Amino acid sequence: MVEFVNKYFIIVDKKLKKKVEIMDKIKSYKNICIKIGFVMTIFFISGIICSTLINRIGFQSETTEGYILILTFSAIFLYFIPITAAIFILRGENQKKFPALYQKPPRLIKAIGNFPTVYGLGQMTNLIALLIAWLVTKFVQNISTAEQQETFERSFGTMNSLIPPNIVCGLVLFVYMVFAAAIFEELFCRGIIFSALKPYGNGFAIIISGFLFGIMHGNFQQFFYAFVLGIVFAYITLQTGSILVSTILHALFNSIAGIIMLFISTETISNYLFNKSQSVHEESTMVLAVFGMFIALFFGLIIAGIALAIKKLTRLKSYKAENLFTEISAKKKTLMFFTSIPVIIMTLLTVDRFAGGIISSLIAGILS
User: Where are the domains of the chain?
Assistant: First the structure.
């Protein structure tokens, strides 16, 4: 009888311990939701401050000095401040040291060889977003005022505001996109946020970190392909155990747009594309020829990449991420995440950013 009672209490004790462990993990997950929401809120507020300061100071993107200062302010407010805040707020939350984040994974070259597929997937998503944007634009033109149309176009804009006025600015933008953006965004989204979410389910961490990566880009068109790329980069980070591969792939992805911007920053290409100039001097022929070859390679990469991406998507079920936190369903985890107060604030700021920056415009108006 005594032995039976002891076994009974052992079983009850194990169940109670299990229940306590689950409750502790749920509490820990809620805490992570609050912290990540707070970090993302800082990111958006920092972006609003950046836009307000740039407008207030009156930097002119048409000048070399103004253009470089705008990129410098962007790097400080969109990268340095949010990443510093994230490191401080999420310290100890499954965070790796910097050497571990960038450790060389096995078969590094093979992993980087996935670039055409990654690029094709991103561009395929981008093309779908462009089609949606075109259809919505046609609808908006029929029901809105010119001012509303302008706001809408800003929310779907991508790189128009970053077109460099000269070759020096083009080089600075190239370095900014290929090195600063790739390194800092991967550190922020995959190195910090994804790592913090991993203990609560790999698949969930991949989707949420990808979503946050998408909204960080601040407009509808970039959101869609950034969301998809964020999922891919997070999956690669999970499989390789480091952010080295995703950082390299991110840099390669950005380098294509960076090279196009570099070409556009030259007087020859700029005049030919925007001024519709048909008179080409002999010394400009080589520049146009090189640009033409690059564009041919660019479209070739897109076509090949989309074909490879479609092939990969047909085997989508084979790409599974282990769920380490099965005590709560994905649906409940998502609900808990998006009903966290800081995440709700983040969502409102996201809507503002996608709507063309109403808050930053109001602040700029009050200050002026």
Answer: 2-367
